[in-house]
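Protein in question quoted in full.
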Amino acid sequence: MSEPEFDNPFSEQTEEACDSCMFYEPSDSDHSHGVCRRHAPIPVVNSDPDEEPNLYAHWPLVRAVDWCGEWESAEFEDEFEAEDEDE
């Protein structure tokens, strides 16, 4: 028995993906992965029982092609940077 097919508007690459979002910060050299800085980081405690507990901040790891419902264009950020350079 085969799976039923349906249209998924997000199954293809969308313009509103993480790599074009103002909250995306690439974390590797080819910019295929990064972190989302849309919200405050989540506090995390290391779980290694051989080490003393250490608290650190964790932002969600995302792929450049991922998407969510809170995407905002990174283009206007470039406009502000261009205005600063003109001054």
